[in-house]
Amino acid sequence: MTPVAAPERTCVGCRRKRAQAELVRFTLEAGRVVPAGAGARGRSAYVCPAVECLETAEKKRAFGRAFRAPVTIDPTVRPAVTRRTSDERR
Ligand SMILES: [Zn+2]
What we know:
This protein is 31% helix and 24% strand. By secondary structure, the protein is α+β, with helices and mostly antiparallel strands.
């Protein structure tokens, strides 16, 4: 059996590498950071499903760096992160 290498991405908050499937994906839409839909294209940023990582990313302006543009964090970003967190704890 050959283990299939899961794609890894770096959380823009804590900068730790995790399997892409464990991270929440965000994309840029008209200057706003929004949760990426299934068919989202283009540059994206990943954050652990943890509010701490989101807050770190906001504090460090990591989204702006990831997207190489001035960004606004959309209000839907936080629920996207916390929803995943509570799902995993169930
Ligand atoms: Zn993280």
